[in-house]
Amino acid sequence: METITWTSKSGKTITATPTDDMPATWLIVTVDAKQIGNGYLLPITDKQVPAAVATQMTAAGLTHVIVCGKIPVGVPSEVAEQIKAAQIAAANRPASLESQREVLVAAVLGAGDQFAATREAAFHNDAGRGWDKVKDAEAAIATAEKALADFDAAHPEILAGLKVEQDQAAERFLNAN
Length: 177
Known about the structure:
Blueprint: E1 4-7, E2 13-18, E3 26-31, E4 34-43, H1 51-59, E5 64-68, E6 71-75, H2 77-91, H3 97-124, H4 131-154, H5 156-176
Antiparallel strand pairs: 1-2, 2-3, 3-4, 4-5, 5-6
Helix pairs in contact: 3-4, 4-5
């Protein structure tokens, strides 16, 4: 993940990094190594940029601003172009293995929900119709579970990482009570 770094006119070191767990248009912003928040890049002419901020940025020769809550960070045009390129690269990056696993887990849960709804509908159908769809829903669960199991077999390090996170969370809970 590419981090763009520049120095403001006041001498502060600023970094902007496209995020990998939110849309790539979001940036993690630091000023002098202190994270000030997540924000997004806007031209100062955008209607979301308050007029007072736009005026101040224009006077400083800046063309863009990263909006981080109440803290606007001015961005010169050449840096804005670098940030846009980094955002495009981040948006085109394949999903992380963790994200891919989350999609598979969601597919298993969704198939389970669909099975429950299909079974419920068939149960309440007085004519007995719908039971054939229950078998299809069961097959969808099996397919989704197999895809997840295949993924876990191919990437045991992801499952091991999740186990470590769960163990750490359990330890924190036990120590807090």
